[in-house]
Design goal:
Oligomer: single chain
Number of strands: 20
Length: 267
């Protein structure tokens, strides 16, 4: 793999759900990028397929149409997804169910890409709490310390991702949990490293999604977060490509998971 950089910007948009992922990749060659989520909520499901461009054309990509996209459940029932817009694929009757395993297969120009994701038991949020206060260096602005309370299952490995919305706007950040040191405990998970430009005030509605993810998804998101924090082409070190669960040199990830949600209004 060439020791150059490729900068890709791509948006994954389905209905009102929008996510922009920025990757610094150790390759100058165009690559297939497949991002796929299968959840217990139809409006959160999508498969997005693009082809990246090279370092000299950052932000440009090609939507991949006319791919054959299939998802099978426990190696039995199979669903053929429809292309609903260029590069975006969906099935109206397919949702993630805990303790099922899903295999996704993408065929494009005589090449097959596949990945597997297992759906863990759902981690249920008990409650949310928060601290809303100023900081010594900025007394004119309120900062949010958000706490998520839930019980970790002692009988299995738990991995989770937290997605936070303020007044229906999704906030930036990749917030992850694993129970390596807290297996079986009652968890008070808190975080506060939102964008410094984000201001919180009384009356703001905070909605939190807890995604119960498998280990492969956790590893991908952890390495993605690490890659994005280590600089780009002019940084001090070359970021590694995020660890994908796709074969055949495809980038991106496939994750099947369930979502638990809670909301709170700041006072």
């Amino acid at each position: 793999m060439k020791n150059k950089f490729l900068l890709i910007f791509f948006a994954l948009i389905f209905h009102s759900c929008e996510e922009v992922i920025e990757l610094d990749l150790n390759s100058a060659d165009p690559a297939i990028v497949i991002e796929a989520n299968l959840t217990n909520s139809l409006e959160k499901n999508f498969v997005q397929i693009i082809k990246s461009t090279d370092f000299y054309n950052p932000g440009n990509y090609e939507n991949i149409s006319n791919a054959e996209v299939k998802i099978s459940v426990n190696n039995t029932e199979e669903f053929l997804l429809s292309e609903i817009s260029p590069g975006k694929y969906f099935h109206q009757n397919l949702i993630a169910i805990p303790e099922n395993e899903y295999l996704i297969s993408v065929n494009y120009i005589d090449k097959n890409y596949s990945a597997v994701s297992s759906v863990p038991k759902t981690i249920i949020i008990d409650s949310l709490s928060y601290l809303l206060e100023s900081r010594p260096f900025n007394k004119d602005k309120n900062f949010l310390e958000l706490h998520v309370h839930f019980k970790d299952d002692p009988n299995k490995k738990d991995y989770a991702r937290f997605v936070v919305y303020k007044n229906d706007k999704r906030l930036d950040g990749i917030f992850l949990y694993d129970d390596r040191l807290t297996n079986g405990n009652y968890i008070d998970f808190f975080f506060f490293n939102f964008d410094d430009e984000e201001e919180f005030k009384s009356g703001d509605k905070i909605n939190l999604e807890l995604h119960s993810i498998d280990e492969a998804t956790h590893i991908y998101l952890k390495t993605l977060r690490s890659a994005n924090s280590r600089g780009g082409p002019f940084g001090s070190s070359a970021p590694a490509n995020p660890e994908t669960n796709w074969n055949n040199n495809a980038l991106g990830y496939f994750s099947a998971f369930t979502i638990s949600e809670k909301s709170i209004v700041l006072k």
